[in-house]
Every structure is written in structure tokens, then in C-alpha cells.
Amino acid sequence: MKVEFLGSYTDKIPEDNLKEVVFVGRSNVGKSSLINMLVGKPVARVSKEPGRTRSINMFLLGNCIKLVDVPGYGFAKVSKIERENWKELMEKYFRERRKQIKCVFVLLDSKTGPTELDEIMIEWIRHLELPYKVVLTKVDKATQKELSKVLKRIERFGTQLIITSAKEGKGKKELFKSIMEAVKVEGGCF
Ligand code: GDP
Questions:
Q1: How far is the CA of 167 from the centre of ligand 1 (A)?
Q2: Angstrom distance (rounded) from CA 127 to CA 130
Q3: Superfamily of chain region 3-8+17-182
Q4: From first to last of its 190 residues, what are the pLDDT tens digits of the chain?
């Protein structure tokens, strides 16, 4: 897939009119690995130490879709100031791009399902009336029983669900299809 790094932003995000899809999730949920799997290149940093990406990274997929990688949340060692900065950046981003955001992909761990912070994130997205879908990550790590339990718990969100494993290359096609459905771009983008 044709992918171009557009930039990394901690404050001012340049304006444009491209349609965006956003990836959000807890630190260490596997967001960077999933993005790398999707685009087929190591464009996002996979961290051994969670909670390091504090900026919004933007990538151009094909000629017309913007993939937005926002900082993960919920890393215990992050200071109060850093948490406040995260919230401010996210509020600003959601406010400025509201119309362009075609889907927020909320990443949840297949083994543990939504944590309290994930629930707050989903509440926030719903409150902003942004379209969203749930992506389960690291399905290779969950037992059948754990996965069924998680699936039951997220049923109530009533959203489309994509099950993935970056390790095993699972769910790439489904995720790509889901992005294409969300952005509704005509041919010629790729
Ligand atoms: P991020 O903080 O959400 O960007 O998460 P990363 O992509 O950096 O991954 C966090 C950790 O989970 C790393 O040690 C990855 O190797 C591991 N990881 C990511 N995806 C998978 C997966 O699909 N399966 C397994 N077993 N481990 C994964």
C-alpha cells in the first residue's frame, strides 16, 4: 500500500480537507503494530516501553485517506501534567477535525476487553457523535473462552467489530475494508 508520513504534531495541526480515520487505544494495546500490519511497513514505532508516543502522527494512505495515530492513554507512569496535555491535545484534535473524522477505531485487547478508561473513551466519542468501530487486538494471546467473554461484553456497544492479530497478520483485509467503508472514497485513491 502507498503510505506517506505527513508529520508529527504536539500542538498545531495543519489544516486540510482530507477524510480521516483515527486509531485510539490504551498504551500497549498494540496500536503501532496494527498500523504497521495494515500499511505493510514499519511506519509506527513499536515500543517496548509503553506510553512514549505523545504526539499525533499522520499518514497518507493512497492519495486521499489520512490515518491518524493519536497517543495511547492509561499508562500508569505518566504524570498528571502529561495526562492533562494528552486530554488537551485530544480535545483540540477532535474539535478541529470533527467533520473530517469518518471513523474512530477504538482498539481493545482481546484478552481483557474494555477497561474503565476504554469505557470513558467510548463515552466521549459517543458524546461527540463521532462514528466509531471496535478493533480487538492480539487475538493470538486470548483463549477461546476469554475471547467469548470479551465478545459478550462489547456486544452492547452495537458497533462493527474487527478481530485482529498483528503477530499473525490476522484481520488486515477486514480492517482495510472497514476503513474504505467509513471514508466512502471513490476509486482512484489507490
Ligand atoms: P502500542 O503502545 O499500542 O502502540 O502497542 P505496540 O504496537 O507498541 O505493542 C505493544 C506490545 O505488544 C509490543 O511488545 C508488541 O510486540 C506486542 N504486540 C502487539 N501486537 C501484538 C499481537 O498481535 N500479538 C501479540 N502476541 N503481541 C503483540
A1: 8
A2: 8
A3: P-loop containing nucleotide triphosphate hydrolases (3.40.50.300)
A4: 899 999 999 888 899 999 999 999 999 999 999 999 999 999 888 765 555 557 899 999 999 999 999 999 987 777 888 888 889 999 999 999 999 999 999 999 999 999 999 999 999 999 999 999 999 999 999 999 999 999 999 999 999 999 999 999 999 999 999 999 999 987 778 8
pTM of the model: 0.95
Q: Is 46 in the pocket of ligand 1 (CB under 6 A)?
A: yes
For the chain, which residues make up each domain, given as ranges?
3-8+17-182
Q: DSSP letters of 92-127? A: HHHHHHTTTEEEEEEEEETTT---HHHHHHHHHHHH
Q: What's at 85, amino acid-wise?
A: N
Quote the ligand 1 centre to 46 CA distance (angstroms).
Answer: 7
